[in-house]
Design a protein that fits this description.
It contains six helices and no strands. The chain is an all-alpha fold and 161 residues long. It is flat and about 65 Å long.
């Protein structure tokens, strides 16, 4: 260190980062625990238990990385909390559940979530986002329905296809 270098204060353990790491680890354990109850219908290869375990492994890796960075104090500084984006995403999730629950189908439900999420990230082109969401949701629905022969919640738009 030269005489002109500023002295860096020692980094402190990021308590919020530790809480996030613990939450990720708990979520990973819950996923694996829940996957144990799934019936395995596959005679060979991967069954329905595989994907929750893969996601749980990813969450566990994120938890470990977050834990190490929190202990070292390497996590980026957080900005002040703005509840609007969180509320917009929660509204989008509630719309997704309500639209599917009332028979609106995958395309409308996913489009609602897409538009509210893009608004949460600061985009204000709601009409353009709605058009993009409808096109993308329709393509995703067709890919699942026609190519993969997997059913998604059907509503009035899906019945037209």
């Amino acid at each position: 260190m030269t005489s002109g270098d500023p002295v860096q204060p020692p980094r402190r353990v990021d308590r919020a980062g530790l809480v996030i790491a613990a939450s990720l680890a708990v979520l990973a354990v819950v996923l694996v625990w829940d996957a144990r109850g799934l019936q395995s219908a596959a005679m060979y290869g991967m069954g329905p238990k595989a994907m929750p375990v893969v996601v749980a492994c990813g969450l566990a890796l994120l938890a470990i990385g977050n834990f190490i960075d929190a202990l070292r104090g390497n996590l980026p500084a957080r900005e002040s909390a703005d509840p609007v984006p969180v509320v917009l995403i929660l509204v989008g999730l509630a719309l997704l559940i309500a639209i599917i629950g009332f028979g609106g189908g995958f395309i409308l439900a996913t489009s609602a979530l897409f538009v509210t999420t893009s608004a949460a990230f600061g985009r204000r082109a709601i009409l353009i986002d709605a058009i993009i969401a409808l096109v993308m949701s329709t393509l995703i629905y067709l890919a699942f329905d026609r190519l993969l022969t997997l059913s998604l919640p059907a509503g009035p738009l899906e019945r037209l296809l």
